[in-house]
């Protein structure tokens, strides 16, 4: 049955298991969108066509395979085989967070100052000034997570918490999104050094605008959160 | 060609052909440290310091094995190095010393830079309603795409305008940079504001259902009310407002 020369043999079984396990991630809600090919026959014929194209350009045939090509305790990296709206076949990567697609980010205000954290971010290999945020956990409410993040990252005393909807930081690659909150806090304690936080910095609204305008604050989620709070008239 | 867009980056074979997957991952990593040193910087402060000496890497792997066992996690894959490298995405795992002094492993994703362009026709902002593979749904957002050239990415910004809304920029203003997912990814988005004179048709390949024009007021309402959820579009709107462009 299995063709030993099939370049997709190694990665295909786990991909098909995941598609069965998380059908929601493999849905084709709209014919105008990118259609994920999951039917066995159409998928195999598409993989063969793409592999042929790659081989003709001197590239590895297995770059055309649908598969989970990387997995660890937190994420799956997938390669899907898709049909674009113009009918062309191709591949598209995705990242799926195992703990679910939701995390939280909070804009804390202490009296008239906004509270930012200076974090070291491994992805950038640099320091970044950001609002507190944290990963989700399946089945826990976003509000509960937001309260925990404020306590753990900032040791904050929370007066009130107000939801501000959600944002997608990278909708091309992942469904992961952040539930946004605006928090009034009465004070904060010491920061969690083990998480790579060096300091807390408090700024006025005008100062934060200057930091965003001058490329000092470049975290997509933090800027989006500030934008939403501003346009809701909270700041 | 693919939806991720491609940086012109080919496979990166090791200097020789080692046998095991672990050796291959590490050999590719060694080549990468030589070619792209900026990915491995260790700035001052209490950071996640990248460790590249062989004995430090082994120590970090041992610590990760122990920690994973304690948490009931799999210990079969403790490779350090380049775990995946195809034209659209590179996944690697570093050995690091955490700020509390402990050593361990830390994954990250290396992706090519993007341009995001906020186009304005007269006094209205043109957003596209586009299907995104990551979320498997449609979003209102500013045109964006992978940057292929070196910075400044003005040519890339102009190309995206042409491909996605059939427009030409009469004026292009650099709105600075943005990091979409700094915890695990090095991706940079470069934001631009563009004044355009006309709107044409989007290319079919881009899965754009329509182009919608928003007055500044309507755009603000759509952001405040949560109809627009694309973070880079929110950020470009704010930066344009701060510069007095909207």
Fill in the keyword field for this structure.
heterodimer, A: 235 residues, alpha+beta, 4-stranded antiparallel beta sheet, 27% helix, B: 7-stranded mixed beta sheet, 5 helices
Describe this structure in words.
The complex is a heterodimer of chains A (235) and B (246). Chain A is built from 5 helices and 11 strands, in the order αβαβββββββαβββαα. Chain A has 235 residues and is α+β, with helices and mostly antiparallel strands. With 246 residues, chain B is α+β, with helices and mostly antiparallel strands. Chain B has helices at 21-35, 54-70, 154-165, 216-224, 231-242; strands at residues 49-51, 81-86, 89-97, 103-110, 114-121, 124-132, 137-141, 144-146, 169-178, 189-196, 208-215. In chain B, strands 5, 6, 7, 8, 9, 10 and 11 form a 7-stranded mixed sheet that branches. At the A-B interface, strand 3, strand 4, strand 7, strand 9 and helix 4 of A face strand 2, strand 3, strand 4, strand 7 and strand 9 of B.
Main sheet: strands, sense, barrel of chain B: 7 strands, mixed
**Total beta strand runs of chain B:** 11
**Count, helices of chain A:** 5
The helix-and-strand class of chain B reads: alpha+beta
Protein structure class of chain A:
alpha+beta
Q: Report the span from N to C terminus of chain B.
A: 34 Å
Which strand-content bin applies to the residues of chain A? 25-35%
Report the oligomer. Answer: heterodimer
Cα shape of chain A = elongated
How confident is the prediction overall: mean pLDDT of chain A? Answer: 91
**Fraction of helical residues of chain A:** 25-40%
What Rg of chain A do the Cα atoms give?
Answer: 22 Å
H/E series of chain A: HEHEEEEEEEHEEEHH
Sketch the major β-sheet of chain A.
7 strands, mixed
Low-confidence stretches of chain B: 1-18
